[in-house]
Every structure is written in C-alpha cells, then in structure tokens.
Amino acid sequence: MLELIREGLGLEPGYFGEELTGDQLLSINHYPRCPNPSLTLGLPKHADADIMTVLFQGSVNGLQVFKDGQWLGVEPLPHAFVVNIGHQLQIISNGKLRSAEHRAVTNSREARTTIVSFISPCPDTIVEPAKSVIDTGIPCFRPCKFKDFFKFYEEKKRDPEAVMEFYKIKP
Fold first, then answer.
1. How deeply is 55 buried, as exposed, middle or buried, from its count of CB atoms within 10 A (0-12, 13-18, 19+)?
2. Are 61 and 73 in contact (CB under 8 A)?
C-alpha cells in the first residue's frame, strides 16, 4: 500500500524504507455490547500519529470518520481492511494527504472486536515533508523526531488540529 502511495506522491522508489516504517504495533480491541451506546464511547475522537493504520473491523458497525462537520459510519465490508492516513504521512506529503479524524462507538446489539496494525517511523527518525512534494519551495511542516512528535501527540491527541498546528510552519 505504501508503495502505491509513494508512487502517487511521485516519491523515489524505496522512500518508505526501514526508518519510516520500522515500527509496527498490533492491537486487538474488544468493545462489549452496550445496551445504551449514548452513555459510553469506544474510543474518542482522534487521528493516528503514525504513517498509516490498517484496520480489520469485522462485521459489526462502530467505526466513524469526521467529514464536513459530521460523523459518518464506515460500513464494514466482508474480508476488507480500512486504511487510515496518519499524521506522519500528512507531514511527508506536505499536507497533500490528511490524517483521518475518527472514533469508535459501541453497539447496542453486538460486541465488536477489531484488529489494528499501526505502521510508524522508528523513534529517532526525523520526519519532514519530502522535497519532491513541496510545490512552493516552502514546506508546510517543520522536521521533527518521531519520538518528540509522539510525546506531544499523547498530550493533545483528542485535538488533532492542535497537534498538526504545532508542527505547521507559519508564513
């Protein structure tokens, strides 16, 4: 998938090498059935700090994305994966790709189990806009070590705009 994204952005072959994709975290999440879903939230609003997130959501509704001021349910498709762009790919693409704000909600009829793979840079990797995607000659984001970005992200993750705003270069 990253190879196709690399090609679409016009980046050189091998751009997403070991440093940018060297860490992977696998998470299995279980959301029990909830008689009154309005009383709890599976995961609050956030966008992922990584390069890319690959999600298998099974057959039960629960994933929602925020688009045009409203939450939209992502219908599960049999044997399909959902791919979310993370903050690091937004930085690398100089804003051409945007990290996806999303949340998980509980279901009143069925429990839900998801399998998620987070693909991230190695902690000491410096992430910055790729030179070939900077149209104006001025990058939109400043370079940062992934571990520093992640530390700030952990403090502000419920406000994805604030996370990215902190790393934007102001004209």
1. buried
2. yes
> What pTM was estimated for this model as a whole?
0.92
One-letter amino acid of 77: L
Pairing of strands 126-127, 112-120: unpaired
Phi-psi region of 159 (alpha: psi -120 to 50; beta: other; left: phi over 0): beta
Question: Which neighbouring-strand residues pair with 118?
Answer: 25, 53
Report phi then psi at 110, rounded to 5.
-140, 150
User: Any idea how long the chain is?
Assistant: 171
CA-CA distance, 131 to 46, in Å (whole number)?
28
Amino acid at 72: L
Q: What are the pLDDT digits (tens) for 25-68?
A: 999 999 898 888 877 778 889 999 999 999 999 999 999 999 99
* Residue that has been written with the tokens 């995607």 in this structure: 133
Query: Is the Cβ–Cβ distance between 107 and 76 less than 8 Å?
Result: no
